[in-house]
Amino acid sequence: MSARLIAARRDDAPSPCNCGMLAELVDYMNERIDRLGQGVAEPHFSAQSARFVVRGAQVEAEVGPFTLRTETRRLAPIVAPGRVAGWYSALRVTTPSGRELSAESLLRLQTSDAAVVAMDRLYRALHMLNHLGCAREDLDLWVHVSLRHVLAIEGRHGAFFEDLLKRCGLGPERIVLIAPLLPADDADFPRLALALDEYASRGFRLALDVVAPTAEAARALALLAPAFVRVRKRDLEALRALEQRTPALVRELGGYAGSTPRFAETDLIEMYDGRRPVFLS
Q: Helix or strand or coil: residue 41?
């Protein structure tokens, strides 16, 4: 089985902005902002305090005192670095004083499950707007979904995001959702498995983060069979050593870690599906 290495790089030269379409999408999303918040009143998030704004060629979200921005990295094959295979979107959060927070830090400020769900949905809506505004709808968009969000929803996982995507001309088949992996013996694993199955049934592909290379994590990967796995290179051998419980997509990576200088030098998160190893450079 051949492999195509794909590196994710910071997007220093973004695609030209379709400003007219972007303004229309932002207007539409601001009309629906009450559905993002679902009437939630929180110190750092409420339907009344959140809005999307266009600044230059980017969409930003203002949520109470915080400004949220998309930071994009392009996924490109190492053998053909000029060709873009997809886009990885992360969140940057700044306070009025200019201090930066992580996306998870902002979620931890929310004091109810409903507020966490609303904020996490707003993150992905922001990334979607920036993806569409730069005419990238023919390429995959990689975005995170919070475990707190996944476990807080009782059912119909992905329905809200699927509706937003389709109304804006983008389908779930172009989205890769990045979610944490729970070990198979975790009490919340059955709920996670059900939620991920619902996402997949709507056409979303899944990339699961391996937090620790344990036997139960390997068993969870085998049970969930995600499209992609994200694992730190230093943990890769530990996963492969588990043999019987390790999915084939992990075992098939043998030898890739030293196959190119670029791959060997990185110690960030690898993402792969057995055919197409991907990593953040």
A: strand
Instruction: State the DSSP code for 12.
Output: S
Q: Express each pLDDT in 55-72 by its tens digit.
A: 988 899 999 899 999 998
3-state secondary structure of 109: coil
Using an 8 Å Cβ cutoff, are 142 and 228 in contact? no
The verdict on pTM exceeding 0.70 is: yes
Residue 203 has a CB neighbour count (10 Å cut-off) of 14
Q: Which tokens go with 83?
A: 């060709």
- Topology of the domain comprising 6-11+70-93+118-280: TIM Barrel (3.20.20)
The pLDDT tens digits of the residues spanning 6-55 come to 444 444 444 555 566 788 888 888 887 766 666 666 566 666 678 899 99
Mind giving me the DSSP string for 204-273?
Answer: -EEEEE-SS--HHHHHHHHHH--SEEEEEHHHHHHHHTTGGGS-HHHHTTTTGGGSSHHHHH--SEEEE-
- Distance CA(223)–CA(62), nearest Å, equals 39
Q: How far is CA 271 from the centre of its chain?
A: 12
